[in-house]
Write a structure and sequence with these properties.
about 500 residues; mainly alpha; three-stranded mixed beta sheet; 20 helices; about 60% helix
Length: about 500
């Protein structure tokens, strides 16, 4: 059999496996949005069975045989080509996943399915004790997985690799520490000076959920999310998922006394969705039709949420529309007032509602805690106290309860250990990409004032989305921006905003 025939067999097998993964994604979406609570037990059985079927297909010995032949073929000569990146990434995944026992995969799938339902109930009832046993088992199994797939002396490296392939914990830690050092002076300015704007206008009991949804759909449609290929629903924790090449679903949650929560959450998830909708449909199921990494994925959600959605130009266009949807709420406010208001620095308890600067500290807290949990240096029983101490040390606030503290995120209940640092990496990547786009296209603020986002979206589609996973994130960022990871564009961007909202500071 020649290389082309072998490649065809391999890709056909992988595409069919992806179809099972898409079915699993549909079940997970249903579980978070529509499934009755009584369906949780059987859904976990479905998750277990599907996970087993997928894992057996992903570790089929034939994949190893196909890849061994293909790695020495001409198809693998260029590792950034469609065929070359497919061979490269499938080999990486195969070598890693075949080290994980089938029973561990199935046990985790069942536990994560049930764990999310346990978390939802525990958060609603502010009852950490009822969630703790599940969380303890989740980290025990993640430790087993990390040990089985160990790629270095650092257990966390193996789990981080699932979301940011090739990244090392030590390098990420250094990047986040450098970022934190750049943020500290800006947070100090906010503590020492009075902000401009009227943040209270964004927090009043005058934002009906139905009107929030209607306004959010207008905004997300205009920036580029295609509702003919997607939909917006309500969930306990916002997320985005792809069910197929033309089926991308985003969710949010509404607080009728807080405008920013759902609106910026929708922009965030729409950013994820636009990335998924911008991937090459003909490559669906293969690495060139898959996102590059979670750090790159988060760069898109954070770019559209913050660099676009919190810009003055954005509100020059959208404030009049907001005033129509929420009569009396923004009376007397100008676009400058709105720009000031949505960019205030205010340490808060809830990560997904945090300002653009302190958000990164939320991520660093979780990054440090989950490493300690994985290494068994911190017990699940002691987690709430450790969580509260870090919030006191990093943000100078203490959660009054576990609902708004250790129970606020769904990630750990779903087994997503190693995911959190990609949010902060995403912030860094987003600013690097946005700076490059403005350099190549010209400043986009004028387009935003007119409600035009197509130039920026097309640039991102050409430079990021259409490339899929042809390149790892370090090589992709180097190719587009000239740097692998550089926090200075983000600090420059945040310094500019801080200067606008607070008393002038030295830049």
């Amino acid at each position: 059999m020649d290389a082309n025939d072998t490649y065809e067999q391999l890709t056909r097998h992988v595409r069919k496996t992806k179809m099972l993964g898409s079915i699993n994604a549909l079940l997970e979406w249903d579980q978070q949005t529509m499934m009755p609570q009584t369906g949780a037990n059987y859904r976990s059985e479905q998750a277990k069975w599907l996970a087993g079927e997928i894992h057996q297909r992903e570790t089929d010995p034939r994949i190893g045989e196909w890849l061994q032949l293909l790695q020495t073929s001409e198809l693998a000569t260029d590792p950034s080509s469609d065929a070359g990146s497919t061979i490269r990434e499938l080999f990486h995944q195969y070598e890693k996943k075949r080290k994980i026992p089938l029973d561990l995969v199935q046990h985790q799938a069942m536990l994560h399915s049930r764990g999310q339902q346990v978390w939802i109930k525990a958060r609603k009832e502010n009852d950490y004790a009822s969630f703790a046993p599940t969380l303890k088992e989740i980290f025990h199994l993640k430790r087993e997985e990390a040990q089985a797939t160990s790629i270095s002396d650092c257990l966390y490296d193996s789990l981080l690799d699932d979301y940011e392939p090739g990244a090392k914990t030590a390098d990420v830690r250094q990047a986040l520490e450098q970022l934190r050092d750049g943020l500290v002076p800006l947070i100090a300015v906010a503590k020492e000076n009075q902000p401009r704007g009227n943040a209270t206008a964004l927090e009043s009991p005058r934002f009906p959920a139905s009107q929030q949804k209607a306004f959010a759909k207008i905004a997300t449609s205009l920036i580029g999310f295609d509702y003919e290929r997607g939909r917006l629903d309500t969930a306990a924790h916002p997320f985005c998922t792809e069910i197929g090449p033309d089926d991308c679903r985003i969710t949010t949650r509404y607080d009728e006394q807080n405008f920013s929560s759902a609106f910026f959450g929708c922009l965030h998830e729409a950013g994820h969705g636009m990335y998924e909708q911008g991937l090459r449909a003909e490559m669906y199921g293969l690495p060139p039709g898959r996102y590059c990494s979670l750090g790159i994925h988060e760069s898109q959600s954070r770019l559209w949420e913050n660099l676009v959605g919190r810009s003055k130009g954005f509100w020059t266009y959208f404030l009049p529309i907001a005033k129509q949807h929420f009569p009396g709420c923004f009376e007397g406010m100008s676009d400058v007032d709105m720009y000031w208001s949505v960019n205030r620095i205010r340490p808060s308890l809830i990560r997904v509602e945090a300002d653009e600067i302190t958000y990164n500290l939320h991520i660093i807290i979780r990054f440090e805690l989950e490493q300690a949990l994985l290494q068994d240096e911190l017990s699940v029983a002691d987690l709430p106290a450790a969580w509260n101490k870090k919030y006191s040390d990093y943000l100078d606030i203490t959660p009054p309860n576990d609902r708004d503290g250790v129970l606020q995120d769904i990630h750990w209940s779903a087994g997503l250990v190693g995911y959190f640092p990609t949010y902060a990496l995403g912030n860094i990547f987003a600013s690097m990409l946005f700076q490059t786009a403005n350099s190549e296209l010209g400043c986009q603020e004028g387009n935003f004032e007119k409600g035009r986002y197509s130039d920026l979206l097309k640039w991102l589609q050409n430079n990021v989305y259409q490339r899929g996973n042809q390149l790892r994130s370090d090589k992709l960022m180097k190719k587009i921006t000239g740097s692998v990871i550089d926090h200075s564009p983000l600090i420059k961007h945040l310094t500019h905003k801080t200067q606008a909202v607070y008393s002038p500071i030295e830049s």
